[in-house]
C-alpha cells in the first residue's frame, strides 16, 4: 500500500512541477506586485493544517532537517531569479533555466523521498516535504519583496 502511495505522490509531484513551470512562465509576463508576492505563501500555509493529524507530525530533528533543506533549495531560486524594468514596472525575467532548476529540484525531491521512505512513514515524509517547500517559497518571496521595495524606492527617488 505504501509503495502505491509513494508512486502516486511522485506522479502528482511531477504534474504539480509541470504546472508550476507553466504558471511561472505566464506570470513573468505581468508586473510584480505585492499581492502576487504574498498570496502564494499565504494560500500554501493552509496546508499546515495537516499537522493537526498525528500521522503528519514531525520530530524536532525532522523539522530542523526540513527547514535547512528548504533554506538550501531556496538559495537556488533566489540566485537564479532575475528582474527587469519595463515601462516603469518591475518584472521577473523569464528564465530558460527555471524549468530545468525546478525539474532538477523535483527529481532530487523524489530521490530523497525514496531514500527517506525506507526509515520514515509516508505521513512524516509528506509533512517534511511540505515544510521544506513552504520554507523555500517563503524565502524566495521575501527576496522578491525586497527587490520590489528597492525598485519602488528608486522609482520614488527618480521622480
Protein described:
This protein is mainly alpha-helical and 159 residues long. A hairpin with a 2-residue loop joins strand 1 and strand 2 (89-92). The chain has a two-stranded antiparallel ribbon. The protein is built from 5 helices and 2 strands. The protein has one domain. Helix content is 72%, strand content 5%. It comes from Salinicoccus hispanicus. InterPro entries: CcdC, DUF1453. This is DUF1453 family protein. Keywords: Membrane, Transmembrane, Transmembrane helix. The chain crosses the membrane at residues 6-25, 37-57, 63-80, 100-120, 126-148.
Biggest sheet: strand arrangement: 1-2
In helices, the fraction of residues equals over 70%
Q: Name the shape in a single word.
A: elongated
Oligomer: single chain
Q: Helical segment tally?
A: 5
**Class computed from helices, strands and strand pairing:** mainly alpha
H/E element string? HHHEEHH
Spans of at least 5 consecutive residues with low confidence: none
Beta-strand residue fraction: 5-15%
Mean pLDDT: 86
The whole-angstrom Rg is: 17 Å
Total domain count: 1
End-to-end C-alpha gap:
63 Å
Protein name: DUF1453 family protein
Pfam families: DUF1453
InterPro entries: CcdC (IPR031306), DUF1453 (IPR058247)
Organism: Salinicoccus hispanicus
Amino acid at each position: 500500500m505504501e509503495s502505491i502511495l509513494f508512486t502516486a505522490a511522485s506522479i502528482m509531484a511531477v504534474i504539480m512541477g509541470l504546472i508550476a513551470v507553466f504558471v511561472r512562465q505566464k506570470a513573468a509576463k505581468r508586473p510584480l506586485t505585492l499581492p502576487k508576492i504574498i498570496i502564494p505563501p499565504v494560500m500554501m500555509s493552509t496546508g499546515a493544517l495537516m499537522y493537526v493529524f498525528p500521522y503528519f507530525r514531525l520530530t524536532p530533528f525532522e523539522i530542523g532537517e526540513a527547514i535547512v533543506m528548504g533554506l538550501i533549495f531556496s538559495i537556488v531560486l533566489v540566485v537564479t531569479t532575475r528582474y527587469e524594468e519595463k515601462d516603469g514596472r518591475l518584472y521577473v525575467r523569464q528564465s530558460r533555466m527555471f524549468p530545468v532548476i525546478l525539474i532538477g529540484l523535483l527529481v532530487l525531491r523524489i530521490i530523497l523521498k525514496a531514500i527517506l521512505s525506507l526509515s520514515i512513514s509516508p505521513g512524516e515524509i509528506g509533512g517534511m516535504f511540505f515544510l521544506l517547500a513552504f520554507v523555500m517559497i517563503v524565502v524566495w518571496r521575501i527576496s522578491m519583496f525586497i527587490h520590489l521595495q528597492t525598485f519602488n524606492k528608486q522609482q520614488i527617488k527618480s521622480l
